[in-house]
Amino acid sequence: MDKAYNRVLFLILTEYWFDKIKSGEKTHEYREARDYWNIRLAGKRFTHVCFRRGYKSKEKMIFTVKAIERKQNIPNDLNLPDVWDIELGKRIA
What we know:
Mean pLDDT: 95
Strand content: 35-45%
Shape: globular
Structural class: alpha+beta
Helix content: 10-25%
CATH architecture: Roll
Distance between the termini: 16 Å
Number of helices: 2
CATH class: Mainly Beta
Number of domains: 1
């Protein structure tokens, strides 16, 4: 895919969640369905997600995005009834 068409979602994670994704144990990232995330994610099409380990670290991971959907009443690590589910694809960096 031409880089001009790539849309990257940048997210900061705590070390705990970063390591879970890095190990492959966690394949979905969740964000609370509130105004901030609704505006940022609704109707947008992201091709990749870039995770950074905390605010001070330079360590990053980039994944393709399989899907970003708003879901209700699904098991999630936030224990919230209404979330944005970011399904991760292949790690590319």
